Automatic annotation (TrEMBL):
InterPro entries: DUF402 (IPR007295), FomD-like_sf (IPR035930). It comes from Clostridium zeae. Residues 67-159 form the DUF402 domain. This is DUF402 domain-containing protein. PANTHER family: DUF402 DOMAIN-CONTAINING PROTEIN. Pfam families: DUF402. Transmembrane segments: none annotated. It comes from the Bacteria. Coiled coil: none annotated. SUPFAM superfamilies: FomD-like.
């Protein structure tokens, strides 16, 4: 089932204390919403195993920078550790994006995800979930194809340059700190 995800993550029970803010930007290279969640206290770290290594994605002092461009069918989350070092970039492929009445950005998650690691490794995740959604009639063939097209575009044109990704993420993070 397609989930609506909110930038302020109201159901995030792992995080006990956080600060959230969001702003609209219109620059030469980007138009959309940027949200920052400063994670102050967690119930416990969130660890994920990728490529034979453990990565901590959430812990005390971490920052999640969520960039939701008007163009494109994705939302990019840059995860920073407590030293403001980038842990990973996570691209959710999206169907619809918008704002709640309270001004909180949201998107409908189309299952497929792209992860970019600082060492330039790129992973395509949850292909089985996308296929299951198509098989169950939760998404159309057009949405299925769009998800793959968007993921391939990210992998081909955005994920190839981690220095550019770092500069882009850090530029918007500096707008908040």
């Amino acid at each position: 089932m397609i989930k609506k995800k909110y930038a302020n993550k109201p159901d995030w029970t792992r995080v006990l204390k956080r600060k959230f803010t969001t702003r609209y930007f219109k620059d030469t290279d980007f138009e959309g919403y940027v949200s920052v969640t400063s994670i102050e206290k967690v119930r416990g770290p969130l660890m994920k195993s990728m490529l034979g290594r453990e990565y901590c994605l959430v812990d005390d002092g971490y920052i999640w920078l969520e960039i939701m461009p008007f163009k494109g069918n994705y939302c990019m989350t840059t995860m920073y550790d407590s030293n403001r070092e980038i842990v990973q970039w996570y691209f959710d492929i999206t169907r619809n994006k918008g704002l709640t009445d309270e001004g909180i950005p949201f998107f409908e998650d189309l299952f497929l995800d792209v992860v970019v690691l600082p060492d330039s490794n790129v992973l395509l995740l949850d292909e089985n979930e996308l296929k299951d959604a198509l098989d169950k009639g939760e998404i159309t063939l057009k949405e299925f194809e769009m998800a793959y097209t968007e993921a391939k575009e990210i992998m081909k044109n955005i994920a190839v340059d981690v220095n550019r990704l770092s500069d882009f993420s850090n530029k918007y993070l500096s707008e908040f700190f």
